[in-house]
């Protein structure tokens, strides 16, 4: 009798483990290609930004914040990971770099109506703080139907660090 219960218990355990394995089996994930990298507003602004910066800077778009900024040294592991997680899934709309060294000059955000939402305002506050603490100039442009290359140049020139100021 005791042997029968033992065998039944083992069979029951095996069946439960098989059931759990079936439930937890990785689902085959598939993906689809998006149609474009930029919204029409982002693409339009990129053209003007390229024209405004072509002589002085390389423009990169959709750059992950964590590829530009990293949490400050000296944080304990838990705080470092928390700080990293806050920026790891976010991106800058555009990054300006020195063409010869690829050093970061400034981050640029194109703010459209979506930035009025509570969620976007919270994200913007984090990005503002992160850039300020890292001493990376963050330039915000409102989305418009049209842009002036000269105005874009002027705003960038006024926003970048003094050593670069006037080099556009």
UniProtKB/TrEMBL annotation:
Residues 35-157 form the DUF2726 domain. The chain crosses the membrane at residues 6-24. Pfam families: DUF2726 (PF10881). The keyword Transmembrane helix applies. It comes from the Bacteria. It comes from Shewanella japonica. Keywords: Membrane, Transmembrane, Transmembrane helix. InterPro entries: DUF2726. This is DUF2726 domain-containing protein.
